[in-house]
Every structure is written in structure tokens, then in C-alpha cells.
Design brief:
Helix content is about 0%, strand content about 55%. The chain has strands at about 1-5, 10-15, 25-30, 40-45, 50-55, 65-70, 80-85, 90-95, 100-105, 110, 120, 130-135. The chain is globular.
Amino acid sequence: MSYTFIDGYGSVLTAASSVIAGAHQPIVQIGYTPELLNVRGTGSVNGVASVALIAAAGAGLKNYITDVFVANTGSVATLVTFTDGDASVLGKTIAPALGGSNLPGLKTPMVTSANQPFNMVSATAASVLHGTALGYKA
């Protein structure tokens, strides 16, 4: 029997199991994704450069980024751009000098193209950025 799960982000996951009782194709609402679909990563960049925070999800899969945390230990505020591997801009934020910019629990996730990493790009030479990203792949 096949079951359809809708995770807390609205993604539909299908699994075969005899553990869950129900109709032929029941829908079960869960508040999280299975651990094997979660993605998380960190990275740092010094000056005008780019760093991959999360690796490519795999053939035919996309990364859905739901939380991003940026700390700027540099002396000036900087524009931070989030891109995927083909340089498509997914989002932007400002990280103030000696401060940060946090984007927890994005209602609409940033989504990479299929099999592309999630990157953080610094726009200021005097910045030192440290980033963390969380999400899932599907």
C-alpha cells in the first residue's frame, strides 16, 4: 500500500508501508521532513567571493532553503546575495558590520535549480561573512 505524506513545508512525499492504517491512498500530515531529506551547511567567505553553503541535492532534486543565518565580523555592512550554481539570484539581505541577518522559518523557501548548490555571495571587500543554511531536498 502506498501512502502520501505532506510535510510541514507543503511538499508531498510518497512511501510504501503497512504500519500506517487507512484507506488506499491516505494523506498523513506531518510537521517535519524525514531526516534523510534534511539539508544543512555552513561556510565562510572573506571579501568579495562566493561559498557553497549547501551542496547540490542530486540528479533531479532541488534544495528548498527554509532558514538562513549570516554573521558579519567585518568592519563594514555588506550586501549578501544567495544564488544557486547557475548564478540565479534566489534572495538578498544586508549583514551589518559586526552584526548579522537572520532569516528563520521562511514561509516561502528559496529553491535552487535541480542539482545545484545553494551559495552565499559577499559584495564587500572588507566583509568577513559566516553563513548557515537549513532546509530539505525534494
